[in-house]
Amino acid sequence: MSQPSHPSGVDPAARSRARRRALQAVYAWQMSGNRIEGIVEQFRSEQDMQIADLPYFEELVRGVARSQAELDALLLPLLDREVARVDPIERAALRIAAYELRERIDVPYRVVINEAVEATKRFGAEHGHTYVNGVLDRLAASLRAAEYSVSR
Q1: Would you tell me which of 38, 56, 103, 144 could form a disulfide with 109, CB atoms 3.0–4.6 Å apart?
Q2: Predicted TM-score of the model (pTM)
Q3: pLDDT digits 0-9 by tens, 114-150
Q4: Nearest to 128 by CA among 87, 99, 92, 96
Q5: What is the Cα–Cα distance from 114 to 42, expressed in whole angstroms?
Q6: CA pair distance 102, 109, nearest whole angstrom
Q7: Hey, what domains does the chain have and what are their CATH numbers?
Q8: Beta carbons of 95 and 119 less than 8 angstroms apart
Q9: Which DSSP string corresponds to 23-60?
């Protein structure tokens, strides 16, 4: 396993892979309705998790499942439709990013948005990333007002 390549001790590439795997797991959970623990266990055994930040993956997936109602309540005023009508990949990306913006203040909001946009480009519909970017930019302005205003 590679050494962390960042002064914080966090390996950004492993975090990025954890977020992509989390997107897939949250998507699977949303589509199947299966218990989140079963999905986490399935991903742990089937995916190449040694190259991802496994604890971060698990935190994101479990955090989204545990906080789904609160996350959806944060997102709903920023959406042009009901949460359930948002494309499932975009919905998963929005929920994960909303969780990170709310719970992981140690992760800069720009990183959260960029990672969600990149994952949506990779797995989502052709222009889904622009929708995700717009929603998350407004959410960051609300949840991370001080950080957001400093960077503008």
Answers
A1: 144
A2: 0.92
A3: 999 999 999 999 999 999 999 999 999 999 999 999 8
A4: 87
A5: 27
A6: 10
A7: 12-151 (1.10.940.10)
A8: no
A9: HHHHHHHHHH---HHHHHHHHHHHS-GGGS-HHHHHHH
- Tokens encoding 13: 């590439």
Residues 6+ apart with CB under 8 A from 15: 53, 56, 115
pLDDT digits (tens, 9 = 90+) for 54-95: 999 999 999 999 999 999 999 999 999 999 999 999 999 999
Q: Is 61 exposed, middle or buried (0-12, 13-18, 19+ CB in 10 A)?
A: buried
Determine phi and psi for 88, rounding to 5 degrees.
-60, -35
| Cβ(18)–Cβ(57) below 8 Å | yes
Question: In this structure, what is the dihedral angle of CA atoms 44, 32, 90, 17, given to the nearest 10 degrees?
Answer: 10
Residue type, 131: Y
Residue 148, CA distances (Å) to 25, 108, 112, 119, 126 in order:
29, 9, 12, 22, 28
**Do 10 and 51 form a contact (C-beta atoms < 8 A)?**
no
Say how many C-beta atoms besides its own lie within 10 A of residue 59's C-beta. 17
Here the tokens at position 149 are 């205003």
In this structure, what token pair is assigned to residue 38?
């079963």
Question: Measuring CA to CA, which residue among 96, 38, 87, 108 is closest to residue 67?
Answer: 96
